[in-house]
Specification:
Layout lengths: L24 E5 L4 E6 L6 H11 L5 E6 L1 E4 L3 E4 L6 H14 L4 E8 L6 E4 L10 E9 L4 E5 L3 H6 L11 E3 L5 E7 L1 H4 E5 L8 E9 L15 E2 L9 E3 L8
Length: about 250
Amino acid sequence: MDADAAGEPASSGRPALRIDRGARATRTWLDGESWVDLVTGFAIDPPALLDELVAGTRWEQGEVLRYDHYVPERRLGAMLHPDAHPLLRQTTMHLQSVYRVPFSGVTALQYRTGADFQGLHSDREMRWLDDTRIAIVVLGVRRPFVIRPRGPWTRAKADPVPAGQGPDDLVLMPGEGDLLVMGGACQRSWLHGIPAAPTTDVRVSLTWRWTSRKGRPDTNPGYLDGFQFGDRRTRPGWRSGPGGGPRA
Protein backbone atom coordinates (compact mmCIF):
# COMPACT_ATOMS: atom_id res chain seq x y z
CA MET A 1 0.00 0.00 0.00
CA ASP A 2 2.97 2.32 0.46
CA ALA A 3 4.73 4.32 -2.18
CA ASP A 4 8.14 3.10 -3.18
CA ALA A 5 11.31 4.95 -2.24
CA ALA A 6 12.15 6.14 -5.73
CA GLY A 7 15.10 8.50 -5.72
CA GLU A 8 15.96 7.68 -2.09
CA PRO A 9 19.66 7.75 -1.91
CA ALA A 10 21.59 10.61 -3.45
CA SER A 11 25.16 10.01 -4.59
CA SER A 12 26.41 11.37 -1.24
CA GLY A 13 24.55 8.63 0.63
CA ARG A 14 21.94 11.11 1.90
CA PRO A 15 18.44 11.41 0.48
CA ALA A 16 18.11 14.29 -1.96
CA LEU A 17 15.94 17.14 -0.73
CA ARG A 18 12.46 16.90 -2.21
CA ILE A 19 11.15 20.04 -0.45
CA ASP A 20 12.17 23.70 -0.28
CA ARG A 21 12.43 24.37 3.44
CA GLY A 22 12.86 28.09 2.76
CA ALA A 23 9.60 28.50 0.81
CA ARG A 24 7.56 31.25 2.44
CA ALA A 25 4.02 30.79 3.76
CA THR A 26 1.25 33.33 3.16
CA ARG A 27 -1.32 33.25 5.98
CA THR A 28 -4.98 34.17 5.52
CA TRP A 29 -7.06 34.67 8.66
CA LEU A 30 -10.57 33.29 8.15
CA ASP A 31 -11.79 34.65 11.50
CA GLY A 32 -10.24 35.40 14.88
CA GLU A 33 -9.53 31.70 15.56
CA SER A 34 -9.12 30.10 12.13
CA TRP A 35 -6.44 30.49 9.46
CA VAL A 36 -4.95 28.89 6.37
CA ASP A 37 -1.32 28.99 5.20
CA LEU A 38 -0.34 28.57 1.55
CA VAL A 39 3.28 27.75 0.69
CA THR A 40 3.85 27.93 -3.05
CA GLY A 41 6.65 25.89 -4.57
CA PHE A 42 7.11 23.72 -1.47
CA ALA A 43 7.88 20.44 -3.28
CA ILE A 44 10.91 20.22 -5.56
CA ASP A 45 10.30 18.78 -9.07
CA PRO A 46 6.59 18.10 -8.49
CA PRO A 47 6.01 16.38 -11.88
CA ALA A 48 8.56 13.69 -10.98
CA LEU A 49 7.06 13.31 -7.48
CA LEU A 50 3.59 12.96 -8.97
CA ASP A 51 4.75 10.21 -11.33
CA GLU A 52 6.54 8.36 -8.51
CA LEU A 53 3.56 8.43 -6.16
CA VAL A 54 0.92 7.60 -8.76
CA ALA A 55 2.93 4.63 -10.02
CA GLY A 56 4.29 3.44 -6.67
CA THR A 57 1.10 3.55 -4.56
CA ARG A 58 -1.54 0.85 -4.38
CA TRP A 59 -4.63 2.98 -4.81
CA GLU A 60 -8.01 1.73 -3.65
CA GLN A 61 -11.58 2.93 -3.93
CA GLY A 62 -13.91 2.89 -0.94
CA GLU A 63 -17.68 3.09 -0.68
CA VAL A 64 -19.73 5.41 1.54
CA LEU A 65 -23.14 4.58 2.99
CA ARG A 66 -25.75 7.06 1.79
CA TYR A 67 -29.22 6.44 3.20
CA ASP A 68 -29.82 2.76 2.30
CA HIS A 69 -26.98 1.79 -0.04
CA TYR A 70 -23.26 2.21 -0.60
CA VAL A 71 -21.92 4.48 -3.33
CA PRO A 72 -18.31 4.56 -4.61
CA GLU A 73 -16.19 7.51 -3.57
CA ARG A 74 -15.30 9.76 -6.50
CA ARG A 75 -11.55 9.47 -5.93
CA LEU A 76 -8.93 6.88 -4.98
CA GLY A 77 -7.11 6.68 -1.64
CA ALA A 78 -4.30 5.05 0.28
CA MET A 79 -2.68 5.19 3.70
CA LEU A 80 1.08 5.75 3.47
CA HIS A 81 3.81 5.38 6.07
CA PRO A 82 5.78 8.61 6.63
CA ASP A 83 9.00 6.73 5.82
CA ALA A 84 7.70 5.28 2.55
CA HIS A 85 9.10 8.08 0.38
CA PRO A 86 11.63 10.91 0.90
CA LEU A 87 8.93 13.54 0.26
CA LEU A 88 6.76 12.11 3.03
CA ARG A 89 9.58 11.82 5.53
CA GLN A 90 11.01 15.27 4.83
CA THR A 91 7.58 16.93 4.92
CA THR A 92 6.75 15.25 8.24
CA MET A 93 9.94 16.58 9.82
CA HIS A 94 9.42 20.04 8.32
CA LEU A 95 5.83 20.32 9.56
CA GLN A 96 6.75 19.26 13.08
CA SER A 97 9.61 21.75 13.11
CA VAL A 98 7.55 24.69 11.84
CA TYR A 99 4.23 24.08 13.61
CA ARG A 100 5.64 22.46 16.77
CA VAL A 101 3.06 19.67 16.98
CA PRO A 102 3.32 15.89 16.26
CA PHE A 103 1.47 15.37 12.98
CA SER A 104 0.11 11.94 12.10
CA GLY A 105 -0.35 10.60 8.59
CA VAL A 106 -0.02 10.23 5.72
CA THR A 107 -3.31 9.98 3.80
CA ALA A 108 -3.07 10.08 0.00
CA LEU A 109 -5.95 10.93 -2.34
CA GLN A 110 -5.91 10.72 -6.12
CA TYR A 111 -8.37 12.71 -8.20
CA ARG A 112 -7.97 10.96 -11.54
CA THR A 113 -9.66 13.67 -13.63
CA GLY A 114 -11.83 16.70 -12.97
CA ALA A 115 -14.81 14.36 -12.62
CA ASP A 116 -13.40 13.16 -9.25
CA PHE A 117 -14.27 15.53 -6.41
CA GLN A 118 -14.90 15.96 -2.69
CA GLY A 119 -17.92 17.89 -1.41
CA LEU A 120 -17.76 20.58 1.25
CA HIS A 121 -17.04 19.06 4.65
CA SER A 122 -14.86 19.41 7.72
CA ASP A 123 -12.61 16.69 9.12
CA ARG A 124 -14.89 15.94 12.05
CA GLU A 125 -13.49 12.44 12.48
CA MET A 126 -10.77 14.22 14.49
CA ARG A 127 -13.56 14.94 17.06
CA TRP A 128 -11.62 17.65 18.97
CA LEU A 129 -11.93 20.57 16.56
CA ASP A 130 -11.12 23.67 18.63
CA ASP A 131 -7.42 23.60 17.72
CA THR A 132 -6.23 21.45 14.82
CA ARG A 133 -3.67 21.42 12.01
CA ILE A 134 -4.31 19.80 8.63
CA ALA A 135 -1.41 20.00 6.18
CA ILE A 136 -1.82 19.06 2.51
CA VAL A 137 0.86 18.79 -0.16
CA VAL A 138 -0.82 19.07 -3.56
CA LEU A 139 0.80 17.54 -6.64
CA GLY A 140 -0.50 17.77 -10.17
CA VAL A 141 -3.02 20.10 -11.75
CA ARG A 142 -4.18 23.23 -9.95
CA ARG A 143 -7.84 23.00 -9.00
CA PRO A 144 -10.08 25.13 -6.78
CA PHE A 145 -9.81 24.41 -3.06
CA VAL A 146 -12.91 26.01 -1.57
CA ILE A 147 -13.22 27.12 2.07
CA ARG A 148 -16.68 28.19 3.27
CA PRO A 149 -17.96 29.29 6.70
CA ARG A 150 -20.10 26.63 8.33
CA GLY A 151 -23.79 27.59 8.35
CA PRO A 152 -26.92 26.05 9.87
CA TRP A 153 -27.39 22.48 8.68
CA THR A 154 -31.05 22.97 7.69
CA ARG A 155 -30.26 26.10 5.66
CA ALA A 156 -27.39 24.37 3.87
CA LYS A 157 -29.68 21.50 2.86
CA ALA A 158 -32.61 23.72 1.83
CA ASP A 159 -30.59 26.26 -0.17
CA PRO A 160 -27.46 24.57 -1.53
CA VAL A 161 -24.92 26.83 -3.22
CA PRO A 162 -22.23 25.20 -5.40
CA ALA A 163 -18.78 25.24 -3.86
CA GLY A 164 -16.87 28.31 -4.98
CA GLN A 165 -19.99 30.35 -5.72
CA GLY A 166 -20.99 31.35 -2.20
CA PRO A 167 -20.60 35.04 -1.28
CA ASP A 168 -18.24 34.19 1.57
CA ASP A 169 -16.31 31.39 -0.16
CA LEU A 170 -12.52 31.60 -0.20
CA VAL A 171 -11.17 29.90 -3.33
CA LEU A 172 -7.50 28.90 -3.40
CA MET A 173 -5.73 27.17 -6.29
CA PRO A 174 -3.05 24.89 -4.79
CA GLY A 175 -1.19 22.47 -7.01
CA GLU A 176 2.16 21.79 -8.66
CA GLY A 177 3.86 21.08 -5.32
CA ASP A 178 2.22 23.69 -3.06
CA LEU A 179 1.65 23.11 0.66
CA LEU A 180 -1.63 24.19 2.27
CA VAL A 181 -2.16 24.15 6.06
CA MET A 182 -5.48 24.79 7.80
CA GLY A 183 -5.19 25.66 11.48
CA GLY A 184 -6.88 26.86 14.64
CA ALA A 185 -10.65 26.34 14.72
CA CYS A 186 -10.90 25.88 10.94
CA GLN A 187 -12.43 22.39 11.22
CA ARG A 188 -14.98 23.58 13.78
CA SER A 189 -16.14 26.74 12.00
CA TRP A 190 -15.37 26.21 8.31
CA LEU A 191 -15.92 23.68 5.51
CA HIS A 192 -13.56 22.79 2.67
CA GLY A 193 -13.87 20.81 -0.53
CA ILE A 194 -12.60 20.07 -4.05
CA PRO A 195 -15.39 20.64 -6.59
CA ALA A 196 -15.46 18.97 -9.99
CA ALA A 197 -13.38 20.81 -12.58
CA PRO A 198 -12.95 20.87 -16.37
CA THR A 199 -9.66 18.99 -16.56
CA THR A 200 -8.42 15.57 -17.60
CA ASP A 201 -5.24 15.85 -15.51
CA VAL A 202 -4.41 14.06 -12.26
CA ARG A 203 -4.34 15.70 -8.83
CA VAL A 204 -2.80 13.99 -5.78
CA SER A 205 -3.04 15.33 -2.23
CA LEU A 206 -0.97 14.10 0.72
CA THR A 207 -2.45 14.94 4.11
CA TRP A 208 -1.08 15.12 7.67
CA ARG A 209 -3.30 15.85 10.72
CA TRP A 210 -3.05 16.91 14.36
CA THR A 211 -5.56 17.85 17.04
CA SER A 212 -4.87 19.26 20.49
CA ARG A 213 -7.71 17.10 21.91
CA LYS A 214 -8.80 20.09 23.97
CA GLY A 215 -12.29 21.50 24.41
CA ARG A 216 -15.58 19.69 23.88
CA PRO A 217 -15.45 16.84 21.33
CA ASP A 218 -17.77 16.96 18.35
CA THR A 219 -20.13 13.99 18.65
CA ASN A 220 -22.25 14.70 15.56
CA PRO A 221 -22.12 12.18 12.71
CA GLY A 222 -19.12 12.62 10.45
CA TYR A 223 -18.28 11.68 6.88
CA LEU A 224 -17.46 8.07 7.82
CA ASP A 225 -20.73 7.59 9.70
CA GLY A 226 -22.92 7.79 6.60
CA PHE A 227 -26.64 8.60 6.63
CA GLN A 228 -28.77 5.75 7.97
CA PHE A 229 -32.53 5.46 8.37
CA GLY A 230 -34.99 2.74 9.36
CA ASP A 231 -34.79 0.03 12.00
CA ARG A 232 -32.35 -2.28 10.23
CA ARG A 233 -29.06 -3.16 11.86
CA THR A 234 -26.58 -0.27 11.84
CA ARG A 235 -24.00 -0.58 9.09
CA PRO A 236 -20.56 1.05 8.87
CA GLY A 237 -20.59 4.46 7.19
CA TRP A 238 -17.64 3.41 5.03
CA ARG A 239 -16.50 0.07 3.67
CA SER A 240 -13.87 -1.30 1.32
CA GLY A 241 -14.83 -1.11 -2.30
CA PRO A 242 -14.33 -3.89 -4.81
CA GLY A 243 -10.57 -3.50 -4.44
CA GLY A 244 -10.62 -3.45 -0.64
CA GLY A 245 -8.54 -1.21 1.60
CA PRO A 246 -9.01 1.75 3.93
CA ARG A 247 -10.71 5.02 3.22
CA ALA A 248 -8.16 7.79 2.73
